[in-house]
């Protein structure tokens, strides 16, 4: 199998709380709660490892509470290549209601100094050695600005490895400057990248094609929640519709989708097979807390229920003004 490095610049402990319904300003009794070391790149790595790949994890991690992360990495047999920095890694709270709605309360993260960032840059050549692909997932921590992140993406791309990116907020603006191989936004993140509302599926599909035309990515995998996912490569667009499942927690669904799609690409599968597999595994993921489980007893059934639209020609977006 392949060797992949998954970068997480702004990891977190995820405190996942389930409750019947969220009523602001009142006292709640949770049905369950758990706190796990997490971060989007770490979640991606966990799925890739379960799919049989060798995973190296990189990024920036607070040294004061790093040990639970180390325990997770050892338990799931992922190589720890994080740069540790002073302070404690943040805690994010995920409130999951019975109807599937999830509210996120995300901390800002550790403030990264110029010296911290330089240590990451210095470690990068060794971290990339022997890898087959690079994943960069998650938000930017305080202290890492758009320009620095864009320059880092450019340096990663210069390695010649395929760079898969899932970011948000200021990180999306860096994608405009750097360009990546595969970009995996959700609807909100695609709106952030384009700077306008995308009110329906047609607008989202046009926007994905526009991203390719502007050179910000070579391919776009657009996650559409309950509507599934689209994969656009500039010549055609393929959409997969997920099976119906009982939604408990959607936090890791996008990470699972990216990991499973990358697995398909690295395995040399046809695009349709990769997207169907990724959509099924993301559907498996939302039934519980944590990343998707390809060893779930009913995964073959979920995969069989994925419906693929016939590939359609790309939708040409209107020309942008100078």
TrEMBL record:
GO terms for cellular component: cytosol. The keyword Transferase applies. Keywords: ATP-binding, Kinase, Nucleotide-binding, Transferase. GO terms for biological process: carbohydrate catabolic process; small molecule metabolic process. One of its GO terms (molecular function) is ATP binding. InterPro entries: PfkB_dom (IPR011611), Ribokinase-like (IPR029056), Tagatose/fructose_Pkinase (IPR017583). Belongs to the carbohydrate kinase PfkB family. This is Phosphofructokinase.
């Amino acid at each position: 199998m392949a060797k992949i490095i998954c970068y997480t610049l702004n990891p977190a402990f995820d405190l996942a709380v389930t409750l019947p319904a969220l009523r602001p300003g009142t006292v709640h009794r949770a049905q369950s709660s758990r706190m796990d070391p997490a971060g989007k790149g770490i979640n991606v790595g966990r799925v890739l490892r379960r799919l049989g790949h060798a995973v190296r994890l990189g990024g920036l991690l607070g040294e004061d509470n790093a040990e639970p992360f180390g325990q997770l990495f050892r338990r799931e047999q992922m190589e720890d290549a994080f740069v540790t920095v002073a302070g404690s890694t943040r805690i994010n709270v995920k409130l999951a209601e019975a109807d599937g709605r999830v509210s996120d309360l995300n901390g800002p993260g550790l403030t990264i100094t110029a010296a911290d960032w330089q240590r990451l840059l210095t470690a990068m050549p060794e971290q990339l050695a022997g890898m087959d692909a690079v994943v960069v997932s998650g938000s930017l921590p305080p202290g890492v600005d758009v320009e620095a992140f864009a320059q880092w993406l450019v340096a990663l791309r210069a390695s010649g490895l395929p760079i898969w990116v899932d970011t948000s907020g200021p990180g999306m603006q860096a994608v405009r400057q750097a360009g990546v191989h595969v970009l995996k936004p959700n609807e909100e993140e695609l709106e952030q990248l384009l700077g306008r509302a995308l009110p329906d599926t047609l607008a989202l599909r046009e926007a994905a094609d526009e991203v390719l035309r502007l050179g910000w990515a070579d391919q776009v995998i657009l996650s559409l929640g309950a509507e599934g996912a689209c994969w656009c490569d500039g010549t055609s667009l393929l959409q997969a519709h997920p099976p119906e499942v009982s939604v408990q927690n959607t936090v890791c669904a996008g990470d699972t989708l990216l990991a499973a799609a990358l697995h398909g690409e690295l395995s040399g599968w046809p695009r349709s097979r990769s997207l169907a597999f990724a959509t099924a595994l993301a559907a498996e993921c939302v039934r519980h807390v944590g990343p998707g489980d390809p060893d779930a007893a009913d995964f073959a059934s979920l995969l069989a229920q994925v419906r693929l639209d016939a590939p359609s020609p790309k939708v040409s977006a209107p020309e942008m003004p100078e």
